[in-house]
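#struct-help
A.M.: can someone run this one for me? Single chain, 220 residues.
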Amino acid sequence: MKATTLSMGENALTLLDLIQRAAAHKGLRLCEGASEARSEPIKKCKVGKELLAALSKRGVKKCNRYIKCDDVEFTLYVGFGVSDEHRGVLIVPIVVGTTGPFVPERGRFPTFQAFKVLVENDSDALAVAKELAASDGIVVVTWTELGLGGIRRLADLFTEFAGHNETVSRLGRSGEVFDPVPNPHYPQPGDELFILEPAQPKIIEMWRKQLNDYRSRLIV
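D.P.: on it. Structure tokens below:
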């Protein structure tokens, strides 16, 4: 199996592929051109007096009592990230809009609490928004849910192969011995490669053969 025969979408996926699959699994689409992995807007909220009162009860208070309700508007999104610890894609709340009037001078805008209040007061909220609001601020779409149980980063697979052998690790970083290259340069973070479980033993076996061939050439 050469790097050129890694079949994208079949035995190899990019980080962006994984996030897109998780988004689709939750009925969402990614926002194109965003600097971070987040969904398209899931709700735009014009905040009236009742919502302001509900926000205030959760600790999301105006720091300027003269701010008018008409000046307050929020757009809700969800953000995405891959977690090795959770073995899946994390979904987190994002609130964008007129947050300034609510931020204490040296504090941070309480994103999750605001998201939670706005969703709980929205009868038309999406299922994923309700799920997130009912959580502790993070929802995990596991690899198993996506039918990708056992998937691993290409770089992590090579780390396991190299073990504690610094010479092998250094050869991997050189990019001159192993194919597929275990630590390639990714033009974008979303290009990072993940390998599906059925293909992992084949790649390790190829690396082992390439390492043995390299050692044989040194002896000659």
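A.M.: thanks! The mean pLDDT is 84.
D.P.: also worth noting: The radius of gyration is 23 Å.
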